[in-house]
Amino acid sequence: MRGIERSAETSKYAHREREQRWLLRASPAEAGVAATIAIEDRYLTGTRLRLRRVESDGVVVFKLAQKVRTGDGSPHEVSLTNIYLDASEYALLAALPASVLTKTRRRLPALSVDEFHDALDGLVLAEVELREGEPRRAAPASAVADVTGDDRFSGGALATTTAADLRELLASFGL
């Protein structure tokens, strides 16, 4: 049996997401933090799927997502489809082989800042979601580089990055 071929760009369930991302020297001060969120992403091996556990203020949300690049294939624009799961559905899918990435997200008024954990300790990225037609924004003051188009900073790539690889990557930016 063959599945129906559909483009993520034309799926009625997907929405387009445009992001801009920067590598930061360090996490900004806590002032102005609207929310702190613990995120565990599981990039399911051999798929384009991400299983996500999000916890904030004692509330846990489980999602299964598919992010597919659109247009020219650059990482700054994707078509995103989310399915919300209950705890038992999440547990079943979490048993599948995956590369895991953990981070703490701090939502600030103008952007979100992710501080990564485990093998990625020391990596801090900021991102902003751009509305349709909105021009790219100026970098935050603490930004080292705009890494929006750098695949090494995509979630799927970071999930398989070792501590040694991260040291080398950050060194290439003078960090």
Describe this structure in words.
With 175 residues, the protein is mainly β. The protein has helices at 87-94, 155-158, 163-171, and strands spanning 15-24, 35-44, 49-56, 59-69, 77-85, 98-107, 112-116, 124-130, 143-146. The protein has an eight-stranded antiparallel barrel. A hairpin with a 7-residue loop joins strand 4 and strand 5. The protein is globular. The chain starts with 14 loop residues before the first strand and ends with a helix.
Compile the SSE list and pairings.
Elements: E1 15-24, E2 35-44, E3 49-56, E4 59-69, E5 77-85, H1 87-94, E6 98-107, E7 112-116, E8 124-130, E9 143-146, H2 155-158, H3 163-171
Labels describing this entry:
8-stranded antiparallel barrel, 3 helices, 175 residues, 12% helix, mainly beta, 9 strands
Task: Summarize the structure in short.
The chain is mainly beta. The chain has helices at 87-94, 155-158, 163-171, and strands at residues 15-24, 35-44, 49-56, 59-69, 77-85, 98-107, 112-116, 124-130, 143-146. It has an eight-stranded antiparallel barrel.
Termini distance? Answer: 51 Å
Task: List the uncertain runs.
Answer: none
Beta-strand percent range: 35-45%
Structural class: mainly beta
**Shape annotation:** globular
Number of distinct beta strands? 9
- As a whole number of angstroms, the C-alpha radius of gyration is 17 Å
Share in helix: 10-25%
DSSP helical segment count: 3
Note the main sheet: 8 strands, antiparallel, barrel
The average pLDDT score comes to 87
Strand order of the largest sheet: 1-5-4-3-2-6-7-8
Order of helices and strands: EEEEEHEEEEHH
Oligomer: single chain
